[in-house]
């Protein structure tokens, strides 16, 4: 099982590396990357679902009203994720994303009427201190708007996860494929509306002319491999992991993304970013260790 967990974590980090590489090098714009990622992810997940289950998986009885909300959250995550990586480093973006997901899940835990003990509050305080340290004015502070977009992406992903748990009676890969189908449809609709009704058709066509094949390839890899196959692997092994193990193992993703950004994009790993990472991830780990 370890090989599957490692593969999933590498896929999650790969999403950040592929997106940042495509946008930083100017191979593609953020909107086109989001659209291609969602469409290729939907195709991959549908193929995997049909291979593992029957065609009846997509019968009307298996579709739920909550799927629409889930698709909107997935689209919000994917769009904010892409536009954030226009101006934020790979590792920093992954750190803000996964920390935002965990903070949102903790907030939902409290909102549901649950209580937190002393060490859980202490861990949360340490993480928030790390966030404050990351965002204070210094030479390596990330762009605040890009950081806010990535935090929003994390909140959307947390909401998408919570909604997905409400569909536990059907296979996780089916829930994921339905969400990707609806989210990619929404992305196409948004693109058409922007092109036709807001009068940006000429600029959109010019934008497509400047999309390099490398940008399309990176977006397809992000959607089909890092998202489609990566999520399929993760949600297959997730039931076999405790909440603590599942939460803590995901804390490796920002570190993997930072290493990938350093190797692929020559992004510096600074001391201040390292300190913020240790505080944020260490605090979150303390929360989940105390809870268990």
Low-confidence stretches: 201-209
What is the radius of gyration computed over CA atoms, rounded to a whole number of angstroms? 19 Å
Q: What is the mean predicted local confidence, pLDDT?
A: 85
- The percentage helix is over 70%
Judged by helices, strands and strand pairing, the structural class is: mainly alpha
Specify the number of helices.
Answer: 12
> Largest sheet at a glance?
none
Helix/strand order, N-terminal first? HHHHHHHHHHHH
Q: In total, how many beta strands?
A: 0
- What portion of residues belong to β-strands? under 5%
**Global shape:** globular
Span from first to last CA?
Answer: 22 Å
Question: What does this protein structure show overall?
Answer:
The protein has 292 residues and is mainly α. It has twelve helices and no strands. Helix 2 crosses helix 3 (66-84) and helix 4 packs across helix 6 (144-165). The protein is globular, with a radius of gyration of 19 Å.
At a glance:
The protein contains twelve helices and no strands. It is mainly α and 292 residues long. It starts with a helix and ends with a helix.
Labels describing this entry:
78% helix; mainly alpha; 12 helices; 292 residues; single chain
